[in-house]
Design brief:
Layout: E1 13-17, H1 22-33, E2 38-43, H2 50-56, E3 60-64, H3 70-79, E4 85-88, H4 103-131, E5 136-140, H5 153-172, E6 179-183, H6 198-205
Parallel strand pairs: 1-2, 1-4, 2-3, 4-5, 5-6
Helix pairs in contact: 3-4, 4-5
Length: 213
């Protein structure tokens, strides 16, 4: 599920958060395959993108982005002034239900990254996209934003909030010509997805082998 999006990546400049591994790395590589002129690998530690630079050359530009650090995001927006497409893929997950002693702490952590991090990103990059003609934003929200699993209650709550923000952004940014898409994959065998609950949740969600929590 999500919003229909009509955006041609060829010859565009893309920024991907969490681009050094998992889904983010695949998104970066796919953008390059589809003809993106440059991809900013937005990662917490720019050294973690060295392999991507070695493989793809100057088409990959590492830039520091920590969704918990607003200053890193505003600094990145000053570097990536030519970006056309922002893909906010980075996120965090805690395996917590609402009765766990540390459920509130887990939710605060997940909200700070998964929701406040999204808001920080769009506040910094929406003006950049506007200046470059509108562009697009894609937010990785996952099936957990519309389906709650008991032992992932706090994570699902954060993703539900992120989905709500994404829908609001779609309306808010329409007038500046920025397309906004919400992405809702199911479980994928990434580092985040390789948990004991992966198979069980895939079955409960009624989804296949591909996707991302």
């Amino acid at each position: 599920m999500g919003f229909e999006m009509n955006f041609e990546v060829k010859d565009k400049v893309v920024l991907v958060t969490g681009a050094n591994r998992g889904i983010g790395k695949v998104i970066l590589e796919e953008a390059l395959k589809r003809g993106a002129s440059k991809v900013y690998a937005a990662v917490r530690n720019t050294d973690s993108a060295d392999d991507l630079v070695n493989e793809h050359g100057d088409r990959v530009v590492p830039v520091r982005v920590d969704l918990e650090d607003p200053a890193s995001i505003t600094s990145a927006a000053k570097v990536a002034t030519d970006v056309d497409l922002v893909i906010n893929n980075a996120g965090v997950l805690k395996v917590k239900n609402a009765l766990d002693d540390d459920a509130i702490e887990a939710l605060q952590f997940e909200m700070n990254v998964n929701v406040y991090g999204l808001i920080r990103m769009v506040q910094a990059f929406a003006p950049v996209l506007k200046a470059n003609g509108g562009g697009a934003i894609a937010q990785l929200n996952s099936v957990a934003s519309v389906k709650t699993f008991g032992d992932l209650t706090t994570y699902c709550a954060s993703k539900s909030a992120s989905y709500s923000v994404t829908q609001g952004l779609r309306e808010t940014l329409r007038d500046q010509g920025t397309q906004v898409v919400s992405v809702h994959p199911g479980p994928i065998a990434t580092d985040m997805g390789k948990k004991r609950w992966l198979r069980r949740h895939r079955r409960l969600a009624g989804i296949g082998r591909h996707g991302n929590l």
